[in-house]
DNA sequence: CTGAAAGCGCTTACAG
DNA sequence: CTGAAAGCGCTTACAG
């Protein structure tokens, strides 16, 4: 407790700088000295004081991950894996008490923030941007001044809705449509309906306070009491959809026969509910790799022009909204895959030089991961 | 960007110390000065450099929460709420890549760690203890040198098993029984069987690599192929149980008629699967309050004798293992409630002066929280 | 290739 | 009640 670099230097009989060089793997230290220093470090149990380093260098060596929306849960897990693989340490400010999160990530000591929140409040974002905090957005919100990595939310929502249309459904409702944060998903939903020449009553679009199971349950229950009731529901997160399924079956309805349900996020949970949950699966691996690469690059070069990196998504049919009989899925993996391997990159309005990310695309096996080691879900 | 306390002092025409006093709410600054300083802070957008403060004071002002086992998910959420309510900032090292977590929490900058992992590796724990890191254990593992806050795991497992016995089950299996980390739950399971005069075959106790759904699925599938197959399964986490239910129904078995299932953790997810999941519910609010209180106390007074704070748990019958017809539940809330309000405190072997925690007990309504705002689960 | 000095931005004794 | 100085443990120019 309290072993400093100086103590190590004294024991090893070298200067503080040499110890620092060894600790940080800097070249220019002879092997013999390096060994002597290593020994001294081991003997004293020295561990560098991170705050001192931070104060001096301005770098914490930490990334922060903030996820306050469950449709990014799998993405968050993938980011943790990807960061660990590359040796980056990550702290998480989790989905928590509504206000807590937004407040929390301002003071987390990190060099950069991966912000998996939908539509971060404008003023908070402004403060971070002007403070120069490296920021990568993962959710729905876009900002000309920030990087974003994620699926094309409008298109993903359109594909989900089109999947329900392909099943012959016409009275399609949407749950989760917060006017602000979920704007693009609602836009995609409406686009799909418009193209099919369908006009959804306003009551079919339900905003919920949060994206959790209980919210989906109550929204669905109210929706199913509407006249006429919807014959399909698109939920903006998997937990919302899980709640909706339970509400439907509790009401004595059959899923998908009476009402089909599709979620958003591709979470594990959806494979185990009954009926199992159809869902839109963001390519979490691509997003994770691109997001980590990007935040690291942004930390190194704050002046990079902001870029948007679009990752592929797939519609994964399971029991709650199965593949249409014809077999021609409205949003085949091929169709929704990006033109460029690894996600396409759009130049942001302000960015004069669009930055090309290296995020190699890993083809997903079959149903997007459900094959590996899990239950075989009846088709 | 780069506004320091000195800048504020200059603008306000005071010394650095005065600004520091104002920022930290120290008394002894006249109201007029305080105002002037506040104004200067606002004008410059000053935010204190946390690392500098940390370096000087040795305090980060952060708590770290490490949860790598899902039976503590609800506890983790409650801790986040409790900490936020009391103005403590928390960073989370989440359940992630198996090794990542254990490695990660060593370098998270925090004044103390709430460690929700089962049986932390001895050597890692040793290192932290000798380093003097304030530590509160939340999982199964105990250590004479550390505080622990949580339910009585042996008793909780005994109650879960007794619940299955009360349903008339005799061939009761257990999933999740890692020899090390889950020892006490296995002990409780065996106690209950022994008291009922039942001898479970060794094959009925299954260790799994992880406590997730897919592990529960595979363990249950293998278990149900055993001859004779179990007529009830106690799972050491809710996700394990969710997987087990799916395995049983996939195999064409009826839950609970052919095989009853009970989980551990009282997670939300269990209310929505079908059949809904019976589970052991730790009193997350009591644990959360006690854990936060304790870690804060331990940070302030490192020499407190280590204490164990035992929180109450309840068995929550739902569809997958309903209440027995007689109505006399084997583990009524009353029976498993602690003698002392707020959880009983046991003196640790080394602690000569057992420390009494103040963790007021909140009686749980009905089924342990499931009543509020969720689906009405058929009895 | 290695060493002595300065300084990152705070807070904490110590004077006034 | 307020101010000037020292120092927390590192790393970064700068000399040798």
UniProtKB/TrEMBL annotation, chains A, B:
Which residue stretches belong to region Disordered?
315-379
Q: Which PROSITE patterns match?
A: HTH_LACI_1 (PS00356), HTH_LACI_2 (PS50932)
Annotated keywords: DNA-binding, Transcription, Transcription regulation
Which part of the chain is the HTH lacI-type domain?
A: 3-57
Q: Is Signal included in the keywords of this UniProt record?
A: no
**What is the official name of this protein in its record?**
LacI family transcriptional regulator
């Amino acid at each position: 407790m309290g072993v400093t670099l100086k103590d190590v230097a004294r024991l090893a009989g070298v200067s503080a700088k040499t110890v620092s060089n060894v600790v940080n793997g800097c070249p220019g230290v002879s092997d013999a000295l390096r060994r002597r220093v290593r020994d001294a470090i081991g003997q004293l149990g020295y561990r560098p004081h991170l705050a001192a380093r931070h104060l001096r260098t301005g770098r914490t060596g930490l990334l922060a991950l903030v996820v306050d929306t469950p449709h990014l849960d799998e993405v968050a897990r993938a980011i943790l894996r990807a960061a660990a693989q590359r040796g980056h340490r990550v702290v998480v400010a989790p989905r928590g008490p509504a206000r807590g999160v937004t407040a929390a990530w301002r003071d987390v000591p990190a060099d950069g923030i991966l912000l998996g929140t939908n539509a971060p409040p404008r003023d908070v974002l402004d403060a971070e941007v002007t403070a120069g905090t490296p920021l990568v957005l993962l959710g729905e919100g876009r900002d000309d001044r920030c990087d974003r990595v994620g699926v094309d939310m409008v298109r993903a929502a359109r594909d989900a809705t089109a999947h329900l249309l392909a099943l012959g459904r016409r009275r399609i409702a949407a749950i989760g449509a917060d006017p602000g944060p979920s704007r693009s998903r609602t836009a995609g939903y409406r686009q799909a309906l418009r193209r099919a020449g369908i006009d959804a009553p306003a009551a079919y679009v339900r905003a919920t306070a949060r994206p959790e199971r209980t919210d989906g349950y109550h929204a669905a229950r109210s929706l199913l009491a509407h006249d006429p009731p919807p014959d399909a529901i698109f939920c903006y997160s998997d937990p919302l959809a899980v709640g909706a399924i339970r509400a439907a079956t509790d009401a004595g309805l059959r899923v998908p026969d009476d009402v089909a349900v599709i979620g958003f996020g591709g979470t594990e949970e959806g494979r185990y509910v009954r009926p199992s949950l159809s869902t839109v699966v963001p390519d979490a691996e691509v997003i994770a790799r691109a997001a980590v690469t990007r935040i690291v690059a942004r930390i190194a070069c704050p002046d990079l022009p902001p870029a948007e990196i679009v990752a592929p998504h797939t519609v994964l049919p399971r029991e709650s909204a199965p593949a249409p009989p014809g077999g021609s899925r409205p949003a085949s993996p091929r169709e929704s895959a990006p033109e460029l391997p690894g996600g396409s990159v759009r130049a942001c309005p302000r960015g004069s030089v669009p930055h090309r990310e290296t995020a190699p695309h890993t083809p997903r096996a079959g149903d997007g991961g459900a094959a590996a080691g899990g239950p075989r879900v009846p088709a």
